[in-house]
Input
Amino acid sequence: MATITFYSSETGTGSAWASASTFPLARSSTWTNKSNTSWNTAWGSFDAGALKYCYRGFFPFYVTWIPAGATITSAVFSVYLYGTVGTPTMGLILTTQTDPTSLAVGDYDNLTLDTPSEGATRVSVTDASYNDFTLNATGLSWLPTPWTDGYIKLGTREARDIDNGLNSTDTYSNARFSDYSGTASDPKLVITYTVPSTFTPKIIIC
Output
């Protein structure tokens, strides 16, 4: 059994958000903004009076160096959250981010808005700590086939965003993204896999 850790793309990781006069409009808006600075609100919503905001997080990982024929037994996505407001629950989804090396404003709505497939059990946020998503069968199916290098484009959304239940209760968290100094709190994906043993027959001559 072997384990390998991947860190998300510095320029592709970040948050995208929209604001509008109501939460349903903000949730489905195509008029959006984005940020891939070292930290920002990773997901959630808040009421700023005339404007209502909705945030989503984007975490693309380039997965490589897993041997051909390997069986991936588990994968855990971890994001460091702090400055949490409210008692939020976060869901893990697969985005269709256009370019995993460059977050764009259009990526906010470039995903399945309603009832998306979720790649892990939802997580009740712990502040000032890594929050871990253990990928379920759906999440594991998003990974590239071993030895076929490629991106997995993970995203985070507040449960109320996923369920179309946003309201005026402020609920959000800030995250440390990949360009935060060092890697001690970077978003990471830890994959555990096994490789079949090889059998070499021996010929014994008596």
